[in-house]
Write a structure and sequence with these properties.
The complex is a heterotrimer of chains A (761), B (150) and C (257). With 150 residues, chain B is an alpha+beta fold. Helix content of chain B is 36%, strand content 15%. Chain B folds into 2 domains: 73 residues, Beta-grasp domain (Ubiquitin-like (UB roll)); 72 residues, DNA polymerase, domain 1 (Orthogonal Bundle). The longest helix of chain B has 14 residues. In chain C, helix 9 packs antiparallel against helix 10. Classes of the chains: A alpha+beta (761), B alpha+beta (150), C alpha+beta (257).
Chain lengths: 761, 150, 257
């Protein structure tokens, strides 16, 4: 393995904004936008499926302070999608800003704007809506070809061929295969055939959805939003509002967490529409309850896995069928589902002779799903890794041994991953190191701790991507300023630290200190185009753009220096604080180049680069968990979670570690208690974070994280991604440990004490 | 109604409605570090000190603070800076939205118990939720700060 | 959203009592529960000027003012000794320190919440409530009063005849609402066991033997009714009731009198 020595890359430096954030300085949307603006709220449907027969707003309009109330009669009739994706979006155009048909409990019915919260609340209580209540589609098993249609409308459009058909409640469908899976499975000595079920978990970022809008001096709509996707957002708003993209400017302040939630334009259309109609500034701040019932959570999936092996444990065939519930709208529906197979099956590339991956994504009258860290891979990996653990048990094999025998290794071509090569893969070393750190051989046997408690262990592997190959765009502009460099990007730092990580790359390339690199705030008017911060792509794609831009900037600085030294630029080289003649005959200081750039100069001290990768190199990881399970109450306590991750080169090991720890704890919550259930009328019961429980620091045990580096040749400084993969191992590993402790496989999340105890009967 | 309180060491008189929550009153007074995370009193983002005790300003009427002493992070910058750099060194700040509440309650912890064990830290801060960090880095930061003082 | 028209700090219990007679007026405890409700309040009555935030003791009892916070209960050395740590155990799972600095014993008891850890323990300890108008009565008797009564809870009185006590609860996550709560307390009259979050209000079974935890747990469980909620079903509650009662008794029996 190549291990290079760097100066800034690989350093565990604090985030550039850390102290300001820790000291509570104003940085977020509601801190930095004016207080004097219209307060915007959305009246929401109490019914899972209904037609608005009549809506009366006249009394509500009379409430003092009310500026406007909009209903379905007032909005443009072109459908669009909220999903933040590259155009043309794979997600169907199935939304209106407000629709006469409401499709889930929480769907928007009216937009109310007024001088303050109190008057808006009062007006909302005075709007009279008469609904024709319709039968909802609530069971996603019966959604496909159900006589009740979620989207019967004629102007529903699927811009990409994803198999969508609104007349069948189908948001997407597909089948791909390599080899003859049925024949190989029939030949296998052991076949496990199981169905797994995961829920519509919530990102639950601490800052709820929020957006401020105003008309600027040029008469353009200026949108300030807590978003991961400034450029997509501009286009989404242009589609929704029916105005040119050039009339919209999107900027973002610091973001209080996203995890994918803010890759969907959940809240932006409402204040934008108000400002466009009234010309007045407007702000919407979602309540936590709105986030819970009208956000953009994980897709609920039911996944059937058939995996076959020979007597020796060699995995020969895998067949995965995913049924994904996109809810009332198709945001991210056609794309998330792909990862449930593409990021799970290739883990077992080594001896795989055949695979098949089929899926259906269906509409139901439930909350629309979106993008949540892991993006389908989390669901698929829970299923496939659990099935492999079940297979190991049937074979009487150690679950680590069966993985060592079958896992993908460096240099292999992965047929189930678009035939991409695993050009950097330390999965084998991750397993070896994790096994050693965790002391697998000692921890794996079930141990009786007395008083009804037992300790047991479980294991799982995971992979993800590092971008959407041949789609995602990252760009960077690097400028030499009077002192130091300015880095301009369109990717959104949502707390992950990408502003710092990308600055480390600039510092590495330009041979300067990280403190000498400033990061420009993100603005569709001034930032270079970037798809946005999602698909784990910022470090890998935008990072590469930074590297390329720096290379170009160095050449340009040499050109400026050449004019100063009156020689050819190719006789010079860039040396950090100066540009030197290769023959040692002289140099000019960088400081003087910066001054020269501002006087009698025609060469820009600025360079840009745009990057797109034809491949999406997977990061890999192994997670092992030790739990203590109370056999008398069913309680599970995570004692130790050990994870070893291959993200290529960790650009900032501290931030990579915290990404991992944060992802593990989200995964633990999803596995043990984060639940989403519905009343029989279709109302979400866990509609607050009092009912939907997030892990506290008492719920997670001790975490240990290490890195096994690989070197990804297409990534910046050998880097791959880290942001999403880290949420994928807890569910299968904990389910495995629970099986060891109780003798019962739990194939549905979350695995609550009640489920454990009652299954044990 | 008129509310008089000592805010960050200064006497403040301002008017507020009877149902104004302290968090909204404080933000109106320019204390923007105070954040609202949930509406169900269980995230700790809005933690402020009232009469020296950490409380949830989202669940306290501004009127109840009348006649009391309230400190927000704006008024405790020096005390916060002491250990915040250790938290920053771990990368634990992340998105930062929960940081002010976490920092305020850590100040409360360290005032009450200057040398806490890891378990005491976890227990005292259990009402401070964070969705980004997974908590371990926050603990490492506090631990590093405590060790630096020994 | 909670709407409040007027806020008053009465200067006497009589004034507070008169104010709270009016429908639409509400006495504030820690306000944590009230704040989450979507309702209109005419007058919010804040008892903070009435000196009810103290824990006093004499030879026979502790007198805990209604405005004493759960955090004060958790940190009180006398209650810690008296309950062999059960007091702190009963409240330490409740959300967090900041929450417990607001939540009051008055609010916790007066609200008669099914999920209340506090109510469970005080009921087992044979505690009494002092109502401004209704006088002194046991916590248990108080739970049977009609919800419509409009009175001021002034104090909670804990007799000092507690010999041993233990507290157990089951939660799906560490600081979540309990799925079941259980307190046992031994006095001269034998052992009392209270079980709450069934999910209905805590009830107690008295005159139990301290020995034979297994059988006693069975006896208690058979006498109680359980129900289902979002957090767990009836049968699960019944099953873990046996476990929590038994463990509480075992923990209590391990204590020195």
């Amino acid at each position: 393995m190549e291990k290079k020595l760097y100066r800034a890359v690989g350093q565990p430096i604090p985030k550039k904004d850390a102290m300001q954030l820790l000291l509570g300085k104003p940085a977020y949307l509601d801190d930095v936008t004016p207080k004097n603006c219209l307060v915007v709220k959305v009246l929401r449907s109490p019914h899972a499926h209904a037609l608005i027969e009549e809506i009366k707003t006249d009394v509500a309009m009379k409430v003092p302070g009310i500026e406007c109330i909009f209903t379905y009669k007032d909005v443009p009739q072109e459908r669009f999608t909220h999903a933040g994706q590259t155009f043309p979006e794979p997600s169907p155009y199935d939304r209106l800003i407000l629709d006469q048909r409401v499709r889930y409990v929480g769907d928007a019915v009216a937009i109310v704007a007024g001088a303050d919260e109190a008057c808006v609340d009062k007006a909302m209580r005075l709007i009279r809506v008469k609904y024709q209540v319709l039968e909802p589609v609530l069971d996603f098993h019966t959604a496909k070809d159900n006589p009740v249609l979620v989207h019967p409308e004629d102007n529903w459009v699927a811009p990409c061929p994803v198999g969508a058909d609104n007349r069948r409640n189908l948001c997407a469908t597909d089948c791909e295969q390599d080899g003859d899976v049925e024949t190989v499975l029939a030949e296998c000595d052991y076949v496990v055939d199981r169905v797994y079920h995961t829920k519509a978990c919530q990102q639950a970022m601490m800052e709820t959805f929020r957006t401020y809008t105003e008309m600027d001096v040029f008469g353009r709509l200026h949108v300030i939003s807590s978003t991961q996707i400034i450029f997509h957002l501009r286009r989404i708003l242009s589609h929704a509002l029916g105005i040119p993209k050039s009339r919209i400017r999107v900027t973002k302040p610091r973001i209080g967490g996203g995890f994918g939630a803010k890759q969907t334009a959940v809240a932006e259309v409402y204040p934008a529409f108000v400002t466009l109609k009234t010309g007045k500034p407007a702000k919407i701040i979602y309540t936590r309850q709105e986030c819970q019932i009208a956000g953009s959570p994980r897709h609920e999936m039911e996944i059937r896995v058939r995996v076959g092996a020979d007597k020796s444990g060699k995995i020969r065939a895998m067949d995965v069928y995913t049924l994904s519930n996109t809810g009332a709208y198709g945001d991210h529906g056609p794309t998330t589902v792909g990862l449930s197979g593409h990021k799970s099956i290739p883990l077992y590339t080594a001896g795989l002779e055949a695979f098949r991956f089929r899926y259906d994504v269906v509409y139901t009258n439930k909350q629309a799903a979106g993008a949540y860290r892991g993006y389908g891979a989390t669901q698929g990996i829970f299923a496939v890794e659990s099935a492999v653990n079940e297979l190991a048990e049937q074979l009487g094999m150690d679950p680590v041994a069966i993985r060592e025998m079958n896992m993908v290794r460096e240099g292999m071509i992965m047929p189930a991953y678009y035939n991409e090569p695993a050009s950097a893969c330390a999965l084998d070393r991750c397993m070896e190191r994790c096994k050693e750190l965790f002391d697998w051989d000692a921890q794996y046997p079930v141990r009786d701790m007395g008083n009804g408690k037992v300790r047991a262990a479980g294991v799982a592997m995971a992979m993800q991507g590092s971008c959407i190959s041949a789609v995602d765009i990252g760009s960077a502009t690097v400028t030499l300023g009077d002192d130091g460099y300015l880095l301009s990007i369109g990717a959104a730092d949502m707390g992950t630290g990408c502003d710092t990580i990308l600055s480390q790359m600039v510092a590495e390339c330009m041979e300067c200190e990280v403190d000498e690199v400033s990061v420009a705030s993100v603005d569709t008017d001034t930032s270079p185009y970037d798809s946005g911060s999602y698909a784990s792509s910022t470090t890998y794609v935008t990072g590469k753009a930074v590297e390329i831009a720096c290379g170009r900037l160095k050449e340009q600085l040499c050109s400026i220096a050449a004019e100063m030294m009156e020689c050819d630029a190719d006789k010079l080289y860039f040396a950090g604080d100066k540009v030197c003649a290769k023959d040692g005959s002289g140099f000019v200081e960088l400081r003087d180049i910066a001054y020269r750039a501002q006087c009698n100069n025609t060469i820009a001290a600025r360079a840009s680069a745009t990057h797109c990768s034809p491949v999406s190199p997977p990061p890999f990881m192994v997670g092992m968990v030790e739990i203590e399970l109370d056999r008398e109450t069913g309680s599970v306590e995570v004692v130790d979670y050990t994870a070893v991750v291959d993200c290529g080169t960790p650009i900032n090991p501290n931030l990579a570690r915290v990404q991992t720890e944060g992802g593990l704890v989200q995964g633990i919550g999803m596995t043990l208690f984060e639940d989403v259930t519905y009343s029989k009328e279709g109302r979400i019961l866990e509609d607050t974070l009092m009912q939907y429980r997030l892990p506290t620091r008492l719920d997670m045990g001790h975490l240990r994280v290490e890195f096994e580096q690989s070197y990804e040749p297409t990534g910046p400084f050998g880097a791959k991604s880290i942001g999403e993969i880290v949420i994928n191992t807890p569910a299968p590993a904990i389910a495995h440990a629970v099986r060891r402790a109780t003798g019962v496989w739990h194939r549905e999340l979350p695995i609550t004490p009640e489920k454990i105890l009652m299954a044990d009967e | 109604m008129e509310i008089k309180l000592n805010l960050n060491g200064r006497a403040v008189t301002a008017s507020a409605a009877p149902d104004t929550m302290l968090i909204d009153f404080l933000r109106e007074q320019g204390c923007l570090s105070v954040k609202r995370g949930y509406e169900t009193s269980n995230c700790g983002l809005c933690t402020v000190m009232m009469d020296g005790k950490p409380i949830l300003s989202c669940s306290t009427l501004a009127a109840r603070a009348d006649g009391h002493e309230v400190y927000t992070l704006e008024g405790l910058q020096a005390e916060a800076e002491e250990f915040a750099s250790f938290v920053a060194n771990q990368g634990a700040d992340q998105c930062g939205f929960c940081n002010p509440g976490f920092v305020m309650n850590t100040i409360a912890l360290l005032r009450e118990n200057p040398d806490p064990t890891d378990d005491e830290i976890r227990a005292f801060l259990s009402g401070n939720l964070c969705r980004c960090s997974g908590y371990e880095s926050q603990l490492r930061g506090i631990r590093a700060y405590l060790d630096s003082r020994k | 959203m909670l709407r409040i028209k007027e806020y008053i700090r009465p200067q006497s219990l009589e004034e507070a009592y008169q104010l709270c007679q009016k429908k639409g007026n509400v006495v504030l405890g820690g306000m944590l529960w009230l704040k989450m409700q979507n309702r209109s309040v005419n007058t919010a009555i804040d008892l903070q000027d009435l000196g009810l935030d103290k824990i006093e003791e004499n030879d026979e009892e502790y007198r805990i003012g209604a405005m004493v916070t759960l955090r004060q209960l958790e940190q009180h050395a006398g209650l810690e000794r008296l309950t062999h740590g059960a007091m702190a155990e009963a409240v330490r799972h409740i959300v967090g320190v900041q929450f417990r600095n607001l939540a009051t014993i008055g609010g916790s008891i007066y609200g008669r919440f099914g999920f209340s850890d506090v109510l469970t323990l005080f009921m087992a300890m044979g505690a009494k409530v002092e109502l401004y108008n209704g006088g002194v009565m046991s916590v248990e008797a108080f739970t049977h009063l009609p919800r419509e009564i409009r009175d001021i809870l002034v104090a909670v009185i804990v007799p000092k005849d507690v010999k041993r006590a233990a507290y157990q609860s089951q939660r799906n996550a560490s600081t979540d609402f309990p799925v079941l709560t259980c307190a046992v307390c031994e006095t001269d009259e034998g052992v009392t066991c209270a079980v709450g979050a069934r999910p209905a209000l805590a009830v107690c079974v008295k005159g139990l033997p301290a020995d034979a935890p297994e059988e006693t747990a069975e006896t208690v469980t058979e006498q109680l009714q359980f129900g289902s909620s979002l957090r767990a079903g009836e049968e699960y509650r019944r099953r873990i009731c046996r476990v929590l009662v038994r463990r509480a008794l075992e923990a209590m029996n391990a204590q020195e009198v």
